[in-house]
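FYI - complex with cytidine-5'-monophosphate, inputs then prediction.
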Amino acid sequence: MLKGKNIIVGITGGIAAYKTASLVRLFVKAGASVQVIMTPNAREFITPVTLSTLSGKPVISEFFTANTGQWNSHVDLGLWADAMVIAPATASTIAKMAHGVADNMLVTTYLSAKAPVFVAPAMDLDMFKHPTTTHNLELLRSYGNHIIEPAAGELASHLIGKGRMEEPEKIFEVLNRFFEQGQDLAGKKIMITAGPTYEKIDPVRFIGNFSSGKMGFALAEECAARGAEVTLIAGPVALKTSSPAINRIDVMSAQEMHDAAIKEFEKSDVAILCAAVADYAVENAVDHKIKREKDEIPVIRLKKNPDIARAIGEMKRPDQVTIGFALETDNEIENAIGKCQRKNLDFIVLNSLQNKNAGFQVDTNVITIITSDGKKMEYPCKPKTEVAKDIINVLAKDYLKGMA
Ligand code: C5P
């Protein structure tokens, strides 16, 4: 899978740098072109001659090549790369990447790179556990970078714990797999609803809910990264999309979301209904601000909103796949299967309400996937970006394989 790929291997100043020579060798043997960029401290741990010999290209460390008047273009390098791997990534480089401190060639190139970036941290266990490192890695994840978690074991300090850079063979495998499944949604059109809906009471007030949209946006980025053309119908959220393959339609109310979804579903292969749609709209909404009356308490009358998932389910052709979400408190499985049938869904993603790291607002989620024929798949607590991968893996393997 790596044949013909251009890979930047970034090496920073940690003892695990000696292992990166093997990683470069593995990439080259697989037919990839490798450009090594070392931070100045990395050169203390392993000689550039080793890496330039293995990669067949001079190692880059500085912005300028001494006494030649030449400079190394981070922009060109960023455009050249199909992937960037930073191994080992020290706490310092992780912090610089998280905050855009572009004071060396490696971080500057990282900021220019459009390709997927893989980060393999390596440091002592206490540095790895420090809240600063945890937070910075979370930031890198939220920017769409792939973190290759360090392994636990004996560290160079002789202490035992988590912080050893993952073995070169494993890092190689992560990239291989990434490119293998890389474009498994190419040619597919996927519609995703996300976020809450706001139901107007008057021009300044609404009924809403706590949905942040994070799960739906993570799904949109994952589908786009795997080659799909995505239409993201988003309720009012404070999130940005980064992939150019996402066509975003912003809506406010359930009715607006419904209308956009019905229009888009016609042209879609898959619909993922992730939005927390308000069940009711305000029947007696007014177009002037409701004044506070002395004696009278206003009454808000509600009317039913359309069930978007159900409407989509009724339109669904045999060549289309639909996925729903559910938050259940009791009889989770029976309710989920019932919902799959009523809404004609292929599978439903159950969010746990029992777990404080799942559901609305938080960056992590705990899910169970339940298929319309009653199959149940449970997953541990993961960042929503990883949960999105799990969901899309099921879609790609069990529902889209073999579909024209
Ligand atoms: O029936 P319930 O609201 O629990 O179903 C949840 C699923 O249905 C979610 O996939 C949600 O996005 C979708 N839904 C919808 N339109 C509604 C209510 C729910 O699309 N009005």
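The chain is about 35% helix and 25% strand. The chain has two domains: 6-181, 189-400.
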